[in-house]
Amino acid sequence: MSSISGVESVPSGQPRTAAQLSVALPVLAVLLASAVFAAFVALYGQNPFTVFGLIVQGGFGSSFAWQDTLSRAAPLILVGLAVAIPAQAGLVIIGGEGALVLGGLAGAVVTLPFAGAHAFPMQVTMLAAGALAGGLWFGLAAVLRQYRGVNETISSLLLSYIGIAIFHHLTEGLLRDPASLDKPSTHPIDPSYMLPMLPGVGVHAGLAVSLALAIIAHVVLRYTRWGFGLRVVGGSARVARMVGLAVNRWVIGATFVAGGMAGVAGAIEVAAVQGTANSSLIVGYGYSGILVAFLARHQPLAIVAVALLIGGMQASASLLQRRLELPDATMLVFQGLIFVCVLVADAIAQQLRENTRR
Amino acid sequence: MTAPQVELKNMTKRFGANLALNNVSLLIRSGTVHALLGENGAGKSTLVKCLVGFYHPDDGHIQVDGREHRLNSPKDADALGIGMVYQHFTLVPSMTVAQNLVVSGARLPAYINWQSELKRLAEVTKKLPFHVPLDVRVSQLSAGEKQKAEIVKQLYLGRKLLILDEPTSVLTPAEADEVLGYVRSLTRAGELSAVLISHKFHEVRRYADDVTVLRRGASVRTGAVANLSDDALAEAMIGEPVSKAVQHAPKLPPKSNIVLSMKQVSVNGDNGLPAVKDLSLEVREGEIVGIAGVSGNGQLELVETLMGQRDRSGAIAVSGVAFNGTRREIARLGVYGLPQEPLKNACIDRMSLAENLALRNFDRAPLCRGIAMNYGALTEQAAKLVKQFRVKAPGLTASMSALSGGNVQRAVLARELTQNVRLLIASNPTFGLDFVACEETYRRIVEARNGGAAVLLISEDLDELLGLVDRILVMSAGRIVHEVSADGADKRVIGKYMAGMKAA
């Protein structure tokens, strides 16, 4: 079913060649994508080595670059998890952007009636509201799949567009702060509710939340009966039913949790960066998250590493633009190339696996 | 070109050690319908796949109108005008009937002149005794209309020998009449010869001229339908009892406690039509009840319902408690199963052997405390089961697909039968297994029974059933049509009920 989701059975330790393959293929895919990207920038009249040098410098070359990279990695980790968790249950869900913006909107408005309260409970409330909104939005796709047979990949993508439209509708209408003139926004949250900076890192506390959730996801998927059950459901719904697992509940539950991750990402962007919900939330984190999860083979800890890599690439985009006058979309091209190469590598891996089986 | 005479001579085909066809000869006379009867796995499909060039026989040859031909690929069969109508449809649902017919041609022109194609089509369909709408999308057709369109497609392609593989299994009786009646009239008119694969005696009797009965890869009976009684056909299909495969443990009189009770259970099949109809049955403690029947009579749906994989109406109770197949009920009431094709139906391919052995109890102590899995205990349990049931595997962490069929079965036996089994549902548990694995499966089932479990054994192999069970129920068209104690069972009587005949 999930030929492209590439979930590996974690603790079972596949035969060694297969395990090596699952690491080697994404690496090869990134190298191949880099080669094509090098050709692309060469066509633009730039030296590819200069470009790669600037990417490293812009993403990881200075403490400022690291701060930028890390604050981008925080939402990328969460939207990566939002793709990886349903993948364990055999679902390919790609609608993270919609859940992220709705989570951000919920986080932005939930504390508005309570000005002047203690900060910590309000911060928790914001993240929880974001999680709930994102979870419900993703949950819809799972309900449609389990009860109406609608393909979850397509429905989640379409629901994502609907979510973004609802976001625009509300931030430009009912929930708009009349004072926000050039950029329609919700009323700003109480400044004291903003997530604090992590001491000594210069990055907001949302990064710590993301890391904590990634570690929790890793532990739950790998070391608990929930992770085990989810892999049974993802491995074969037939067999899961035979051993008495309520497949619908498992699938919908996992998808809800995944949507919650994307929703928290949105709430963090509001509570740590924007201070309000506006169109700055819609910058494509949800779509980059798909790339992060696929490149990380849907493993939560690998997602942290890949999110850093992709975050660094995105952070370097402005440097490329300033120094070399490469267009803004250059990094999107690079990301897209990587994604295509990963999908091809996955398809080849699948083929190899099936050939060895015969 | 008129209806060809096709002769298959001394066809033999092996798959590994398995002899699928053993020196089978068959004569399809010009302008006749030749029926192939036989249980699943008797070799019918293998034989016709040789005839359409899909398989290459190890031995034997094919003559069409007296000339010998080698069929290296389905293209060669196509050139000879041999075509097959499959049990399941091969039309593109999103295209109209006309489009389907035109694109089914082996050589499509780069530019399709739809007007002339449609004219040609209209000429083909004009002669039909029934109406096939050409400009309707296939997805909107009923099953009967689709099957008719399949046959029209073969005629349009100029096929002269039609092979029909259980063409009526998805049709209503009226639709079946129409489809087969049409094939019959075409053969009578000398335009076609046909091979009809069927399980249904009345179809063979009504629409076929000749019949050949296959059993375990060999042709055991052949002749004109008119000269063979239903009795003779049933006997040939089922065969004489071979030496009993299993030595029974001395039978104990079954205890009176009813373990499984089904009352008026109805289940729909995948096609949305009722597959199990108002079925009631009981299985007692210490008893093996067998369900005999030709495949496709609702047994699969019955098993899936008992395993909690299908919705149903009616009541199922285990030891007097309503049973819906939840995990808690399964553990409390002790309901376990041995499905057919265990790799596909009882194992998770991408999880390891050790994990597959834990599917029944991964969420209970000692494998799990609170929510934390104890992989040490899981591996320990797997090592114990592998040793106890002598599962041969590359290692506990090997994926299930690395195991042979017999060892997959041993792993499933180990997992299911080491639980506290009070009701065991076994569905064709030896299908596709080698002799040793079969014997072991039988032995373990009898052991479970002797240990006090109630066993429901569904099998298409009557010998297997008669060797194992205490009581036999015959299932036909979704109902139990006959019940007999294994001691007094007469194979011929059972065979008649299996074939859907009313009176004994």
Please name the defining characteristics of this protein:
heterodimer; A: mainly alpha; 0% strand; disordered N terminus; B: alpha/beta; Rossmann fold; 6-stranded mixed β-sheet; ABC_transporter-like_CS (chain B); ATP binding (chain B); ABC transporter ATP-binding protein (chain B)
Report what the structure shows:
- The complex is a heterodimer of chains A (358) and B (504).
- In chain A, 72% of the residues lie in helices and 0% in strands.
- Chain A is mostly helical.
- The two termini of chain A are 19 Å apart.
- With 504 residues, chain B is of the alpha/beta class.
- Among the domains of chain B are: 6-238, P-loop containing nucleotide triphosphate hydrolases (Rossmann fold), CATH 3.40.50.300; 259-329 and 457-504, Rossmann fold, CATH 3.40.50.
- Chain B has a six-stranded mixed sheet, sandwiched between helices. In chain B, strands 16-19-20-13-21-22 form a six-stranded mixed sheet, with helices on both faces.
- Mean pLDDT of chain B is 85; it is low at 241-247.
- Chain A binds chain B through residues 7-9, 11-15, 220, 223-229, 231-232, 235-236, 238-239, 241-246, 357, and chain B through 307-309, 325-331, 337, 339, 344-352, 354-355, 358-360, 362-363, 368, 371-373, 375, 394, 397-399, 401-402.
- Chain B: Residues 6-241, 260-502 form the ABC transporter domain.
- Chain B: One of its GO terms (molecular function) is ATP hydrolysis activity.
- Chain B: InterPro entries: AAA+_ATPase, ABC_carbohydrate_import_ATPase, ABC_transporter-like_ATP-bd, ABC_transporter-like_CS, P-loop_NTPase.
